[in-house]
Amino acid sequence: MGASRVFRRCRVAAAGLTLAAAAGGAPLGGQEGGALRLGLTYEARYVPGMVVAPVTARAGFEDLGAAVGEILRTDLTYSDRFDILPVPDTLTLSGPPNYALWNQLGAVWLVTSDISVAPGTQTPLLRVSLHDLVFGKLENVQAFTLPSMDAADFRMSVHRISDRIVFWVTGERGIAATRIALRRRDGDGSSHLLLIDSDGRNPRRIETGGRNVFSPAFSPDASRIAYTIQDETGYFSLVELNLITGSRRTVSSGRLLQTPSWTPDGRLAYAEGVAGTTRVVVEGGGPLTEGRVQSLNPSFSPDGESIAYEADPANEQQVYVRRVSGGPARRISTYHPREDTNAAGPDWSPTGDRIAYSALSDRRWQIFTVNPDGTDRRMLTRRGESEDPSWAPDGRHLVFSSIDAQGSTVWILDVVTGRSRPLTSGRLDGLPDWSPPIPPGS
């Protein structure tokens, strides 16, 4: 790895390039000239059919009903857990659902919803029902209050309802009520942070006060984000931004500060330059790595007992895992002496079972996942340059940056089915980080 590419998460794409992204949800392997192609193996897992019926709304709430229905259908499609089926024009939706007929059309689940008004108020009330078409029964029903369509938290409120539907069906958390932070480069060569909902909507620009910004990282409660900025003199500052209050705190400054991450209990870890090398440290504690090697990009296991990071003891960056309390490090990336096999940017899954990272394959950076002990290595992408993976809270979706001759953009990939979609397009975007679930009021 050359000196100009010491930090994989600091890579700068060539200016002026654009990317013509494919339609959302299309498998990357089917694109001509797309940013990348899917990897080698995905599970042949059954995806049940689901119908999301149009929202029934009382007079005066038709626009609200249409907006809610569009968000629900998009979220449930992007969950990659269902095959969302169209509603035939010849099929009436009035009256009780005809379970047998819907099931004959290939649907397993039916979602119906209606908007009324909470008693004694003008607050919209959305009642959502989940029907099991195989067993012919109402599986779940719940009412949710909705903010107005122009409220800042309107879309996120509906995203939470989508996640509730996913939980009803699967017993697992959804990913709709989350955000992704990324670095966006401007036309003058400077950069800023962008927060964007998981469906690619509702972007929020964050000015950072520095010409170059790197490595955004959400806190475990999604209330804060850490990042580093580099000023005109080349010095770095590590900054913590409170996303609720807007207040900022400078954690540290120096010649080299990079790749912040968070421990599960909410402390900041990051790489700092010391005596010509870098080491991983924790705010308020001691160093986690030592020695005459470059160590950076820390990522912690969900229980906080182990850390994954990249280091270069053989003058070639590889990914290692060790106990936070000490002891030997285990290399989990594949290394071949005298071959260009760099690996970088590990991210430990919130479910604890996999670690994602980027590594060179045929001299191109691609996304891999592996068990924490280094077994069962899987290659997920195989075209273009794919880097900087970050897990969603469900432990099955990854966001990552992709660079090819057309430009740089950010993609989302379901590692179970291989479904993929662009999150951004036509921009110089990269260094994404996926948030935990966004709590109400954030």
Fold blueprint:
Layout: E1 49-52, E2 56-57, H1 62-78, E3 83-85, H2 99-104, E4 109-117, E5 124-132, E6 137-145, H3 154-170, E7 179-185, E8 191-197, E9 204-206, E10 212-218, E11 224-230, E12 236-242, E13 248-254, E14 257-262, E15 268-274, E16 277-282, E17 295-300, E18 306-311, E19 318-323, E20 330-331, E21 343-348, E22 355-361, E23 364-370, E24 378-379, E25 385-391, E26 397-404, E27 407-414, E28 420-422, E29 429-434
Helix pairs in contact: 1-3
Concise structural overview:
This protein is mostly beta strands. The protein contains 3 helices and 29 strands.
Identify the notable features of this structure and list them briefly.
6-stranded mixed sheet; disordered N terminus; mainly beta; 39% strand; 4-stranded antiparallel sheet; single chain
Number of helices: 3
CA(first)-CA(last) distance: 40 Å
Specify the overall morphology.
globular
Mean pLDDT: 86
Strand content: 35-45%
* Biggest sheet details: 6 strands, mixed
Structural class: mainly beta
Helical residue percent band: under 10%
Tell me the total number of β-strands: 29
Oligomer: single chain
Low-pLDDT regions = 1-40
Tell me the radius of gyration. 23 Å
